[in-house]
Prior knowledge:
Number of helices: 7
Helix content: 25-40%
Strand content: 25-35%
Largest sheet: 4 strands, mixed
Strand order of the largest sheet: 1-2-4-3
Distance between the termini: 49 Å
Number of strands: 10
CATH topology of the largest domain: GMP Synthetase, Chain A, domain 3
Structural class: alpha+beta
Shape: elongated
Amino acid sequence: MVYDLKTISADVIFDGGDMDCGSGLILLIRENMLNTPVGGILEMRSREPSVATDLPPWCRMVGHEYLGQTEGAGYSRYFLKRGDDIHAEEKALEKDKEDARKYEWRLRARSTGHLKSTIYTRNFSFDTGQSASFEEKDSHPCAIEYLLGSLAGSLSTGFATECARKNLEVDDIELSLSATLNNILAHMGIEDGDPSLQSIELKCFASTFEDEEKVHQAWQVSLNRSPIAATLRKSVQLHTKLIIV
């Protein structure tokens, strides 16, 4: 059967935003496929270019029919026809979820020079500098800066992804962050005390003409889903604010 992709009526439609197949999109496809009747059509919308290459072979591998792709308003529309194995998708989804729950992040670190350590993880390596520095310039960021950068990065990426999934057009997202320790001198080994983080102030600036309530909802979702924000919030005064400009 030949389908006209421009006029096709899908049984289920969902937006994958800018996620790629390796970052959880397949889980979302499987979940939505379970809501699609056998022989029915699922439409998946995406802004991630690599999906066009990865999705067709995945469909062949798992027994769904890939019908093709057409362009929408700022996103691509992908059409999949559900296969006739009623239980295969349920089993595959449960296995994917179980594998995801067991996933472990692994890395190793080595002291590789004066006031320098190198971190190795997956196919990446990066250098960290001394415990703390009051200089404007250094050869490498300190570990605290990596931690705070991870927080800011997880929220900026997560917020952009959630906006894309909600079809919210945001032209620019920028975060500013400041933080203090309870006693930086304890961290530097100069005196006894509490070296832990005391407070973090984080502001997110978003340039958009979309409905502000919907944008704020997307920001809150990204906050709630960030494992770094959720972990820090348990022990640090974490203050966040979204400013729409």
